[in-house]
Structure formats: C-alpha cells, structure tokens
Amino acid sequence: MANLSDKKIVDRVKETSTSSGTGDYSLNGAAVGFITFASVCQNNDVFDYAVNEIGGAKWETGLGRYNSATNTVTRLEIQASSNNNQAVNWTTEFKVIFISLNATSIIQISEELLLNSLVFS
User: Among 32, 51, 71, 77, which one is least packed by beta carbons within 10 Å?
Assistant: First the structure.
C-alpha cells in the first residue's frame, strides 16, 4: 500500500477505455466534462482508481500507476471488484476509469489521524 502522501489526488479526471483482459488500461480520451490523466499526471504517478463498465455490472477499484509513454494505467493493487475482489477480466466493453479516493485510503487517513491524536494528546 502506498503512503497517502505519495498518491496523486486530483478531481474530475475520467477517461474511457476499451482495454480487454487483466492488463493495463489504455486510455482513450476524457469523458464528456472531465479531464485526461495526461493533463495532470506525470510518468509513474500513483493514485487510487475506480473503473466502471458503462451500462453493466462490472467494476474494480485499486491502486494504479500512470505511464506517460503509453498513456496507460497499470494495476498495482486490486482493492475491491465485482470479480470477488480480484482483477476483472474485461472484454472490449466500454468502461470509464477515474482517479478516486478509495475506501482503503479513507481507512488509512482515519488510522493516521487516530494515531496522531493518541501520540500528541
């Protein structure tokens, strides 16, 4: 798990993807009204992500890394998914991928705040 301070946290980053399998997510451009990963991420930036199948039931959340040379997101850690919390094996269905603040990070924030309050009280 990456430290929260090492994660990129940016609003309104969402792109479409038609990647298949369990490998990297190829990014196809910003969803209407949103911005691209390339506009805010540098190579190797790490962030929480979420992916939803458009009009379907498949989804995945995790920790990802941006690759600027290939304009892709690499899955580093799957945190939860519609596939029993394993990587979703996508077909070519349309999906959206976006930078998120996942439950795992919120729990980490809560634990750090609690620890700090106990140490400094």
Answer: 32
